Input
Amino acid sequence: MLTRKLVRSIFMYLVVMVLIILVVLIPRNAEMTLVDGVMEYQYKFSWESYYQNVKMYFTNVIETKSLGETQGWQSVEEVIISYMPASLKVIGAAFMISMVFGIYKGIFDFRQSGRKTSFLGNGTTFLFQAIPDFFLIILTVLFIITYMTFIPIFSQGQWYSFLFPSMIASIYPSMYVARITSAALTNEVGMQYIQVAKAKGLTEKMVLYRHVLRNCYALILSHCSSVMLLILSNLLMVEFLLGYKGAAFRLFQALDYSSVMVAGQRSKFEGELVIGISLCFLLIVLLSRVISEWASNRLDPRRKEQL
Output
């Protein structure tokens, strides 16, 4: 059953990767023409150009055994090797912070439920989740650079430079894990094994940590891939705002986003690099999916029996 799920996940991500490649290779040959003293933007889609782009890309990959070159005549692999380690530090740290802090926040929310101070628990979790993640990141960065100027969030080159981007990127995923943990603990309330444990003289805290939480780990870990998706979706915004030179920052440069069109300006869009970095991020999500399925199957006795 686990193998079938993993094969299905790998197939799904392969389909997503193919769709990304097909979108990136859409022809982008727009023209700026001067009509009656006014510059006009013209774009005509051509299936022939699209076919040639797709054919040329895969022919180049097969013949050169490379994902392509960037505008600076570097291979895509060299750029990925140069930028990806910085992002991996942020992703790894953000994932650990999200899971550890999120679980403890979920336990706190669960213990506060039904009390007058419940607004400090589920109330704050719902508040953070009600704010769009990109807006939450912008507010956090603005708060730090305005009121906490002693925090070097724009620091580069220090061993701890990845910590601040990690903490900012993990805010929203942590609240997601907290909500999942709190809901999982609530679902266990009233179970017979809890009554048995209490009858043996165990305290509420011992029952929670030794028995209830252990039974919730399978459900919590089954959301690892969702947590990773949230972290990666926040990574682009965090690295761009902080000027952190990671793969997501380089991806933004490769997209060559600009709100201004200049006649005669050469496009700096680097499609091969966009595909390469996207492939790396998809592999990270796929890996988290595999770990998530494996861990939840191992920890859930009902799933373990079906293996």
Observations:
- The mean pLDDT is 86.
- The beta strands are 31-35, 38-42.
